Amino acid sequence: MLSFTRLPRAPPLAETNPVCYRLCMTSLIYVLNGPNLNLLGTREPEIYGAGTLDDLETLCAETAEGLGLAIEFRQTNLEGELITWVQEARQKAAAIVINPAGYSHTSIALMDALLSVELPVIEVHISNVHTREKFRHHSYVSRAAQGVICGLGFAGYRLALIALSDILEEDQ
Ligand code: DQA
Description:
The protein is an alpha/beta fold. Helices cover 41% and strands 15% of the residues. The protein has helices at residues 13-16, 18-24, 45-48, 53-67, 79-92, 108-116, 155-171; strands at residues 28-33, 70-75, 95-99, 121-125, 147-150. Strands 2-1-3-4-5 form a 5-stranded parallel β-sheet, sandwiched between helices. α4 runs parallel beside α7 (155-171) and α5 (79-92) packs parallel to α6 (108-116). 1,3,4-trihydroxy-5-OXO-cyclohexanecarboxylic acid binds at residues 36, 99, 101-102, 104, 125-127, 129, 136.
């Protein structure tokens, strides 16, 4: 009688090879939000509007779906966590949308992380940082960003996803 030994199934190539992952899978965009953006809706609504972080996530998810993209939407108040997520995106994502919030103006470490991932990065600010206090006019993160959108409210995230969809299509 013949007997067969069942060999363990090899994981699909797309799960082990980041290059194949990017080509084979629906492009995944990390949408990362920095400190205090969990307070959207109650935080200085005259500057940031009345919409909440959940509203923002819904807008991003609906936009991504319409573009045939997938998103991983996250918010943290911790600089190190934001940096860990940027590093994680290198393996798992095709691009990054980031609103680094206050860390835009202070974090060389976050800029270094974004420079190291070799992914398209778009920096978004809900408010127009250039019409506000002088310390908001400079962003370290902008050095690592392919594009920067500010002052258009939540729509800036929508426009960032549309731009990334075009960039990723051109790259293929
Ligand atoms: C912000 C602008 C930053 O200057 C500020 O620290 C934020 C939010 C924006 O989305 O407009 O927290 O990134």
